[in-house]
Amino acid sequence: MKRHWYWFLFVIVAVLLVACNGEEAKDEGAGADTSDGETKAVTAEGGTIKIGVLASLTGALESYGKQTQRGFDLGIEYATGGTMEVNGKKIEVVYEDTETKPEVAVQKATKLLEDDQVDFLVGSSSSGDTLAVLPLAEEYEKIMVVEPAVADSITGSEFNEYIFRTGRNSSQDAYAAAAAIAGEGVKIATFAPDYSFGWDGVNAFKTAAEKLGAEIVLEEYADPAATDFTSNLQKVIDAKPDYLFVVWAGANSPWNQIADLKIQEKGIKISTGAPDIIALQFMNPLIGMEGFSVYYHTLPQNDVNKWLVDEHQKRFNEVPDLFTPGGMSAAIAIVEALKQSDGDADANKLIDIMEGMSFETPKGTMTFREEDHQALQSMYSIRLEQQDGVDYPVPVLIRELSPEETAPPVMN
């Protein structure tokens, strides 16, 4: 496989949503002491596998980072059978807050690699943060498992051979979304945040929808930190599409203003991916909408997901959310690779093991595609329905979309 060298300084103002609140708000995960933001394991020198996890642990993407952190800690516990070690080596996890700032992500990743001497990097919550860090994985020759950042370019134009992604990418979302609404002669407007997550999401959706015969009549982008989308949505109304497809992440979602402007009453149907539970609480105006889901805890039916749901409810008194299974999947992938390498964390050996490697996750079987190291995985075609005892629209399964059905194009 070719090795590509990139010097990439990615500076954008990307305010999205995730994680917890610095050192005071970091969760205890999977039986590990995280009071100082790290999962500790005391072990003899040379007997430790160290994993550095980058996440937005403060700021706009705080909830996503929190989900990733909980899922990762639970995943290490699940994959090691509760021993928190692999092949006799203890696992130590060090969490660092990127603050959803690419320049901070680079500083924290460099600290993990140079000061903490981690064997793996994992992260991050933001595509901007992740893209800024990718070259460091290659420079230091360390495996980086990307979770949950979705920009296509991560496993596309900015890919290097040390990058493996358990998170889905924008094209996988797009293929699932297009299957729900696109068809010959259907007119679609898109609405997304004005940064890499939104650009890649719309571009991928447009490609998939046009293949099915749809026409994209408007691509509208908004400041990701904005709270007033009136002018953006008026452009959508003026374009008179059959559907408005929304790509969004974060608490400052446009759903209330979509309802206030009575867009659906103007004959424009709304479609989107079912987001995290916090965002679902603002989507009551969209009950009956058909779209897609990356994950909702009742959708996958397998033993790994059952364990995750049961343990998460037991420990946190709530169900796992959108990005919790991704954190768990990243942890499982690392432990599985280490099992196959007999505990050897040498990245150049692990590349050969991980290319084409399949592993069981809360979403079923994932497989790292050899060509670009993107994990092929199931997605879900869903309808939002109101259910008794639940104060938000619930994603109900129409059908599971197979890993083969949503496999994105190879773009690296």
TrEMBL record:
The lineage of its organism: Bacteria, Bacillati, Bacillota, Bacilli, Bacillales. Keywords: Signal. Belongs to the leucine-binding protein family. Pfam families: Peripla_BP_6 (PF13458). The keyword Amino-acid biosynthesis does not apply. It comes from the Bacteria. Residues 48-385 form the Leucine-binding protein domain. The keyword Magnesium does not apply. InterPro entries: BCAA_transport, Leu-bd, Peripla_BP_I. Coiled coil: none annotated. PANTHER family: LEUCINE-SPECIFIC-BINDING PROTEIN, PERIPLASMIC BINDING PROTEIN OF ABC TRANSPORTER FOR NATURAL AMINO ACIDS. This is Substrate-binding domain-containing protein. Transmembrane segments: none annotated.
